[in-house]
Amino acid sequence: MTKKERAAIAIERLKKEYPDAGCTLDYNEAWKLLVSVRLAAQCTDERVNVIVKDLFAKYPGVEALAAAEPEDIEAIVRPCGLGKSKARDISKCMRMLRDEFGGRVPDNFDDLMKLPGVGRKSANLIMGDVFGKPAIVTDTHCIRLCNRIGLVDDIKEPKKVEMALWKIIPPEEGSDFCHRLVFHGRDVCTARTTPHCERCCLKDICKAYPEYKKQAEEIAAKKK
Question: I want to staple 180 with a disulfide (CB 3.0 to 4.6 A). Which of 14, 28, 30, 214 is the partner?
């Protein structure tokens, strides 16, 4: 089975398993997603969704947030962790949107990458979720699952995983596929526990399954 064939099967099965999977960050405007995705680094989306309510209530637009001092932003976003650096990036980003992009989030990848605090993962998320353009978001779930399933071979660097996936994932499927990998990674193909292979819809095409199955059998034998 080629990687492209394996990917096609994974795409269709995960569609059935998670038909409504989407971004788990709450937003109703592009700039809010831009802020939230920066805050989500080393923080759960659930916590970010709570914290940004106060941030957006106090600063309800790009102009207002751009005018805020980084220290004032930090005071609100500190519970997300890395408060100083995140507040600094958000401040610089909003000021660049105000001064260079007319207060609007750009709809092309190169301009998004110019914004402070925006890397390839964030830019792809904006491209896919806000503008409906081809995107592949290589977060930790995507990287872990793609290596386990066998869509990439022992590649851990996000950009290299992204480049490899562009070759085997249809452009129109990339964004939704990555969202579904997040849900599958949280619920089934977990990182901090033995994966729940027994209820995985991909186990028959997963390269890692034989090893995890063996581990599960050994654990079960020890409990007897």
Answer: 14
For the chain, 224 residues long, the average pLDDT of each consecutive 10-residue run is 97 97 94 97 94 97 98 97 96 98 97 96 96 96 97 97 98 97 96 92 96 80 76
pTM score, whole prediction: 0.91
Give the DSSP H/E element, type plus range, for residue 84: helix 83-100
In angstroms, the CA 130 to CA 128 distance is 6
Residue with tokens 């106060």: 54
Q: Which long-range contacts (CB under 8 A, 24 or more apart) does 161-164 make?
A: 162/120, 162/124, 162/136, 162/138
What does the pLDDT read at residue 213? 82
10 Å CB burial of residue 183 (0-12, 13-18, 19+) is: middle
Active-site residue, 204 included: no
Given the residues 121, 129, 176, 203, the one annotated as active site: 121
Whole-angstrom Cα Rg for the chain: 19
For this structure, is 121 an active site residue? yes
Which candidate in 89, 129, 139, 176 is catalytic? 139
Same domain, 106 and 162: no
Domain range for 201 = 3-20+137-223
Residue 29 is predicted with a pLDDT of 96
The answer on 141 and 124 residing in a single domain is: no
Measured CA to CA, the distance from residue 173 to residue 122 in angstroms comes to 18
